[in-house]
């Protein structure tokens, strides 16, 4: 038997996505804030809410009360009271800032979904690749064993011919061995053919996946180009009203409201990027809603 050549080449799985611009620097109009405290307790009401924010008055009121409570806990006083007849208002103004933020979030979600789909496919193909590599080793082992068996058979046939033996039993045994070896050889050839076909299918799938990865990289680069981090104003307190212009989540809105209510208390900005009263929303923990040491020091200095 001539040893059947087994050449299985599996394509490489690759992925390289650039870092996406997740964070948007959002300021609280540091240069034009009013820092004079209002007469406490401050009565407020929820005024205009542009319907494009997809928020109702009750949702805004609940978030505002949560934002107000964090200052009340620190000062020990009820500083903010909801009053439907109050002159002081909280207004939601929808403009290009919120639209830009909405577009960024939607595009980012789409990219994340595509990236997750790609990763799931990669893991599936990696599993198939591992199975094919195991089968490659198994087939190579079978080839080695079968080649050894053929070599032993050929040596036995040569010895039989040299002895010029007329033993019908030995001749029948050799013929039976030849038949069995040929069946094994044919079976192994079919197994190799099927294995090569699976390998070709895997390579095609990997090539398609790698092509999708290139498209993902292009999409990510385009995202970073379209949504470069920039400074824009989320909210503003002018001494008579609070205006909210942009937020990315309810947690983000709660922190923004707390920041503007802090100004209503007369608090200025801090130098701690994790604090509520820092002028840029970027490094605060939106889920762990609490005052930092810097925020607390502002309140103590006010008293």
From TrEMBL:
InterPro entries attached to this UniProt entry: MetalloPept_cat_dom_sf (IPR024079), Pept_M10_metallopeptidase (IPR001818), Peptidase_Metallo (IPR006026)
Lineage top rank: taxon: Bacteria
Keyword Protease: yes
Domain Peptidase metallopeptidase: 189-301
Secretion signal, residue range per the UniProt entry: 1-23
Molecular function terms, GO-annotated: metalloendopeptidase activity; zinc ion binding
Entry GO CC: extracellular matrix
Keyword check for Secreted: no
Coiled-coil annotated residue ranges, if any: 101-145, 171-226
Name the record gives this protein: Peptidase metallopeptidase domain-containing protein
Source species of the chain: Acinetobacter venetianus (strain ATCC 31012 / DSM 23050 / BCRC 14357 / CCUG 45561 / CIP 110063 / KCTC 2702 / LMG 19082 / RAG-1)
Lineage: Bacteria, Pseudomonadati, Pseudomonadota, Gammaproteobacteria, Moraxellales
């Amino acid at each position: 038997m001539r040893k059947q050549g087994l050449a299985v080449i599996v394509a490489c799985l690759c992925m390289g996505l650039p870092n996406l611009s997740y964070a948007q620097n959002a300021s609280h109009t540091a240069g034009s804030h009013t820092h004079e405290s209002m007469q406490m307790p401050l009565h407020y009401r929820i005024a205009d809410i542009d319907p494009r924010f997809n928020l109702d008055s009750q949702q805004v009121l609940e978030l505002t009360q949560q934002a107000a409570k964090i200052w009340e806990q620190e000062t020990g006083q009820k500083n903010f009271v909801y009053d439907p007849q109050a002159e002081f208002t909280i207004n939601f103004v929808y403009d290009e800032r919120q639209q830009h933020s909405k577009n960024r979030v939607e595009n980012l979600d789409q990219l994340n979904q595509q990236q997750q789909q790609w990763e799931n496919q990669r893991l599936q193909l990696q599993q198939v690749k591992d199975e094919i590599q195991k089968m490659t080793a198994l087939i190579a082992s079978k080839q080695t064993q079968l080649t050894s068996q053929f070599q032993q058979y050929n040596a036995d046939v040569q010895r039989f011919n040299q002895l010029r033996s007329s033993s019908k039993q030995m001749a029948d045994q050799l013929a039976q061995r030849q038949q069995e070896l040929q069946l094994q050889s044919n079976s192994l050839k079919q197994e190799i053919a099927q294995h090569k076909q699976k390998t070709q299918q895997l390579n095609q799938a990997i090539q398609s996946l790698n092509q999708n990865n290139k498209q993902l990289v292009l999409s990510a680069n385009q995202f970073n180009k379209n949504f470069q981090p920039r400074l824009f104003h989320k909210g503003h307190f002018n001494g008579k009203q609070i205006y909210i212009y942009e937020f990315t989540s309810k947690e983000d809105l709660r922190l923004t409201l707390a920041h503007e209510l802090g100004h209503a208390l007369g608090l200025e900005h801090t130098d701690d990027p994790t604090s509520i009263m820092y002028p840029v929303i970027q490094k605060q923990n939106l889920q762990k809603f609490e005052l930092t040491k810097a925020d607390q020091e502002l309140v103590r200095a006010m008293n």
